[in-house]
Amino acid sequence: MVLKRWLTAFAATALLAACSSSDDGPRHAELQPITTTVEGRIEWQTRVGQGIQQHYSRLRPAVQDDKVFVADRHGAIAALNVADGRQIWRNEIGGRRGILNRWFKGEPARISGLTVAGPLLFVGTENGKVFAFNNESGELEWEQSVPGEVLSAPAVGDGRVVVHLGNGRVVSMSARTGGIQWQHEDDVSLLSLRGTSQPVISSGGVMFGGSTGKAVVLISQTGQLAWEERIATPTGSTELERIVDADGTPLIVGGTMYLAAQNGELVALDLRTGEALWKRDYGAWRSPVQVQNRIVLVDQQSNLISVDRNNGLEQWRNTDLFLRSVTEPATLGSYLVAADRFGYMHWFDRSNGQLVGRLELNGDAVRSAPVLAGERIIVQDAAGRIYSVRQSER
């Protein structure tokens, strides 16, 4: 049996940043004064459960119409009114009930991701469960066990729900009933970041990145391998340097897939053949983001980089938030909005990458990217606080 060792992405960053003096190695950047041209204002905030606390997780809100769907790791799931944060419904999932001090809160569900599609909210857990809830009432529609930890949000499309498990398997289920349709087993690395690439269902395929540094496309109807292409090869003298996880969600634009890997490259691949159209030396475990005709990426040192999506040529780079574990940005108007592990939100001018706005939340880390709900920016921190933020120009 292969023993797989997990290293959280946050821990990987912390290994780089943890030092007591400038002689010990790189330190995270301290915030510097900026010329503010845009401001963020908290419109409402609420709390659902206890968040992810000290655990690493990419758990983030999901938005549909006038509802924000949120969860905590332990098992609380809720739908909120996007206008005022008022709770519409709440449900709880989990394991055994609390017994004395051993399971004071009961066994946690270990929720890892939410996806809302049509009338259903799909929930994946590290306990190897996938749930579907009615998004209007919160009632459970179906529950399915899968053979491994669900470490990223489920993908939904073509009448199916697809999850990428920590053991490398990819499982497709019926979105209506939860019945398992097919399974695909991918290679896994002996040492890996704690997470998996969320699949994308598009153009008759299921696309994802693997822990061995590959981009993979399966035929969505059968789960058979269409193609795979290596985008990172283990090199270096330390285990940290040899990690090559492609854990971001693939970005599909037309007939091109964009994906990056830790200690690897940002690559544009032809969706039909897997042929590399261009490669650039930007190692990253977060997902690339499309901003009109550009691709924006947060690399593994938390530098924000914008490249031309047609040829990969760099347009600008911001290094002001070095090693602050910056999330993927959301695009709102003329700005990119991201957050960091120190509980700050940051606004960047998307034309040149300059920092032009900042908002301090409650000081707890933000691990996952902000989500847009119209003109609102929805953010969830590690303590389970949900914020609705409005931006305005000065």
Protein described:
By secondary structure, this protein is mostly beta strands. The protein has two domains: 1-57 and 284-394, Methylamine Dehydrogenase, Chain H (7 Propeller), CATH 2.130.10; 59-194, Beta Barrel (Lipocalin). The chain contains one helix and 34 strands. The chain has a four-stranded antiparallel beta sheet with strand order 2-34-33-32, with no helix packed on it. Strands 3-4-5-6 form a four-stranded antiparallel beta sheet, with no helix packed on it. Strand 28 (330-332) and strand 29 form a beta hairpin. The longest helix is centred in the N-terminal third of the chain and has 9 residues, at 9-17.
How would you sum up this structure in a few lines?
Keywords: Cell outer membrane, Lipoprotein, Membrane, Palmitate, Signal. Belongs to the BamB family. This protein has one helix at residues 9-17, and strands at residues 5-7, 38-47, 62-64, 67-71, 76-81, 87-92, 111-117, 120-125, 129-134, 140-145, 155-157, 160-164, 169-174, 180-185, 191-193, 200-202, 205-209, 214-219, 225-230, 251-253, 256-260, 266-270, 276-280, 289-291, 294-298, 304-308, 314-318, 330-332, 335-339, 344-349, 355-360, 371-373, 376-380, 385-393.
Structural class: mainly beta
Rg of Cα set: 20 Å
Largest sheet: 4 strands, antiparallel
Number of DSSP strand runs: 34
Strand order of the largest sheet: 2-34-33-32
The number of distinct helices, counting runs of at least 4 residues, comes to: 1
**Level of helix content?**
under 10%
CATH architecture grouping of the largest domain: 7 Propeller
Sequence stretches where pLDDT stays below 50 over 5 or more residues: 14-22
Main location: membrane
Membrane topology: Lipid-anchor
Pfam families: PQQ_2
Family: Belongs to the BamB family.
